[in-house]
């Protein structure tokens, strides 16, 4: 699937055509806007430049989605109206995004268009970090709270860092520093944003190219009262004439400032010092709010490219367990193929990583995921559910000991999985506390004994058997079996079977899952609906679509024999999407 990703700014339209399964884009470009080139003209040019490739969907970067969106959405008129609402809080970013969406929808009316929001990743901010300390009713009425931005980038580099460190993201406390023209820091605990330096608008927090970042609110009153500037002038002053640009008096481009600083320009030096100091301050703050730190990640044009700025930011953080290797820092180079470089010493307890961000790839992934999910909605997602009562599989030797040397398993009834059948033979399970009689054998015989009971059965028997995938009986619970001819004491073999779904490869393709995936299945439409998590998918040409659960699980959901569930998809990055739709019947 090829996704056209559009990032519309006030002065340019940036685009990339991406196959989300590949690191490098199929095409990319930047079209300057001007007197002759409005958004519609730019989109026209962009389509000419990509005409050799197919486009399956369009992903748009939208900076401010406020609290209206927690995830990417397919754009419709309602979504556009919502984005419009947040224009006053992102005057630099949302109007060009809306103009871009409108132009792209006009030019490509038959394609799905998806909005991916900078704010979405920060929808997990806890109350303590999203609230400003002002009157809560006033804040609520005017939707004044901290939303945070650059979420796509923070999330992308956090995932890359976890992959590089070979640690599950839900074990990590990360600080990600997106340092570009806009700059923000983020504290990420267990994969979720818990603090970030931008607030209600992208003006807050770190020093930026032309934005002031944090300043005392009193400064604004003073400038207004002294009539130094009106409201619009102040807006321009803080958004466009401050930050590195305001401090240095030169420009917002760090490269130029670094050149001048090296030549002795005092204000250029000051601007670098203030920038680095502010970032360091946030690192300390976030290490404290998270109660520790497992890695620091630098990204964005400055984070990826300026070794001297990285050095200033990270020096003297040994007390946090972070020690920079200056040679590695100087040599660090990242690109879309070699995304990650470690710049800390081997002994540094907290690694420091430079990571090439890729907001466009992240937008393409989320767009593709949403489109795939939509198309799955069109297909039949029902899964028949079979409730397994307690039963057992035996090996030849145990069968002979229980039923006699000459005996063979006798066919009673076919089971739904091809080749499997229920036998006439039954045994008694003997536990330390109680016996359970009449437990049916399933055929054909196997090479390992496996006795599958429910938790309730375990309590009755007085044993504690592990939850296991079928076939994994090593180290499982012991049990005694009694048959008509003899009894056998097994040292292992008793399990509580892990819930699973048998699928033919065609089903797996239709559901978009693979062998050994873990999925969730929602049971809806009944009197005791629930979602089964940790359901194992087992794919084989020999299987027929069916979910197997035990009697306890079926009772908990008040299921009868003809019940069906529906898959709740687990997406590429392991978060759960809300596709729990269909009902049992
Ligand atoms: N080699 C470099 N050395 C220092 N700064 C750099 C270098 N390359 C890019 N930058 C800085 O990165 C910033 C732009 O970051 P970028 O992430 O591209 O911006 P945007 O937020 O517009 O996407 C500018 O301040 C630029 O000076
Ligand atoms: C939110 C924001 O500041 O974005 P950018 O860095 O693209 O200006
Ligand atoms: Mg940026």
Automatic annotation (TrEMBL):
UniProt record, GO biological process: 1,2-propanediol catabolic process; acetate metabolic process; acetyl-CoA biosynthetic process
GO MF, any single term: magnesium ion binding
Residues that coordinate or bind ATP: 14, 178-182, 253-255, 301-305
EC number: 2.7.2.1
Cofactors required: Mg(2+); Mn(2+)
Binding site for Mg(2+): 7, 359
Annotated keywords: ATP-binding, Cytoplasm, Kinase, Magnesium, Metal-binding, Nucleotide-binding, Transferase
GO cellular component terms, semicolon-separated: cytoplasm
Binding site for substrate: 61
Pathway: Metabolic intermediate biosynthesis; acetyl-CoA biosynthesis; acetyl-CoA from acetate: step 1/2
Cofactor binding, per record: Mg(2+). Can also accept Mn(2+).
Catalytic reactions on record: acetate + ATP = acetyl phosphate + ADP
Domain of life of the organism encoding this protein: Bacteria
Keyword Zinc set for record: no
Localization annotation: Cytoplasm
Residues annotated as catalytic: 118 (proton donor/acceptor)
Site location (Transition state stabilizer): 150, 211
Function per UniProt: Catalyzes the formation of acetyl phosphate from acetate and ATP. Can also catalyze the reverse reaction.
Family: Belongs to the acetokinase family.
Subunit structure, as described in the record: Homodimer.
Protein name, as recorded: Acetate kinase
Organism (species): Oceanicoccus sagamiensis
């Amino acid at each position: 699937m090829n996704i056209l990703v559009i990032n519309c700014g006030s002065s340019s339209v940036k685009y990339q055509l991406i196959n989300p399964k590949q690191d490098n884009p199929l095409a990319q470009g930047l079209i300057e806007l001007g007197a002759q080139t409005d958004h519609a003209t730019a989109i026209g040019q962009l389509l000419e430049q990509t005409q050799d490739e197919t486009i399956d969907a369009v992903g748009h970067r939208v900076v401010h989605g406020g609290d209206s969106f927690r995830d990417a959405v397919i754009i419709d008129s309602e979504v556009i109206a919502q984005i419009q609402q947040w224009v006053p809080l992102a005057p630099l970013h949302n109007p060009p995004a809306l103009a871009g969406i409108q132009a792209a929808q006009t030019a490509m009316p038959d394609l799905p268009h998806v909005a991916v929001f900078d704010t979405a990743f920060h929808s997990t901010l806890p109350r303590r970090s999203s609230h400003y300390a002002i009157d809560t009713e006033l804040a609520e009425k005017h939707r004044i709270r901290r939303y945070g931005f650059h979420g796509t980038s923070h999330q992308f580099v956090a995932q890359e860092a976890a992959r590089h460190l070979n640690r599950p993201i839900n074990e990590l406390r990360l600080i990600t520093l997106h340092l570009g023209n806009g700059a923000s820091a983020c504290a990420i605990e267990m994969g979720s944003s818990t603090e970030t330096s931008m607030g209600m608008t992208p003006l807050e927090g770190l020093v930026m190219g032309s934005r002031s970042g944090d300043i005392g609110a009193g400064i604004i009153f003073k400038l207004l009262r002294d009539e130094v500037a009106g409201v619009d002038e102040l807006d321009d002053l803080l958004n466009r004439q401050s930050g590195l640009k305001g401090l240095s008096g030169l420009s917002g481009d760090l490269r130029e400032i670094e050149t001048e600083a090296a030549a002795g320009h005092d204000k250029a030096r000051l601007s670098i010092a203030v920038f680095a100091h502010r970032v360091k301050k946030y690192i300390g703050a976030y290490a404290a709010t998270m109660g520790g730190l497992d890695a620091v990640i630098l990204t964005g044009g400055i984070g990826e490219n300026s070794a001297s700025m990285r050095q200033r930011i990270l020096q003297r953080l040994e007390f946090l367990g972070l020690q920079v290797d200056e040679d590695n820092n100087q040599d660090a180079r990242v690109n879309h193929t070699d995304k990650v470089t470690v710049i800390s010493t081997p002994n540094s307890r907290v690694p420091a990583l430079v990571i090439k961000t890729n907001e466009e790839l992240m937008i393409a992934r989320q767009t593709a995921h949403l489109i795939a999910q939509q198309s799955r909605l069109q297909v039949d997602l029902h899964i028949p559910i079979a409730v397994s009562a307690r039963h057992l599989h035996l090996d030849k030797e145990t069968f002979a000991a229980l039923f006699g040397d000459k005996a063979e398993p006798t066919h009673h009834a076919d089971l739904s999985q091809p080749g499997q059948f229920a036998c006439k033979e039954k045994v008694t399970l003997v536990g330390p506390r109680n016996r359970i009689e009449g437990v049916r054998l399933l055929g054909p015989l196997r090479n390992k004994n496996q006795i599958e009971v429910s938790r309730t059965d375990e309590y009755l028997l007085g044993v504690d058997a592990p939850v296991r995938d079928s076939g994994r009986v090593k180290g499982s619970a012991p049990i005694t079996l009694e048959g008509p001819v003899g009894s056998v004491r097994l040292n292992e073999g008793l399990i509580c079977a892990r819930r699973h779904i048998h699928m033919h490869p065609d089903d797996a393709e239709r559901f978009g899952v693979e062998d050994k995936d873990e999925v969730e299945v929602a049971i809806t439409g009944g009197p005791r609906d629930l979602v089964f998590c940790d359901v194992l998918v087992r794919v084989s040409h020999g299987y027929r679509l069916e979910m197997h659960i035990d009697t306890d699980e079926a009772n908990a959901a008040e299921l009868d024999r003809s019940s069906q569930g529906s898959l709740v998809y687990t997406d590429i990055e392991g978060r759960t999407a809300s596709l729990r739709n269909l009902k049992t019947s």
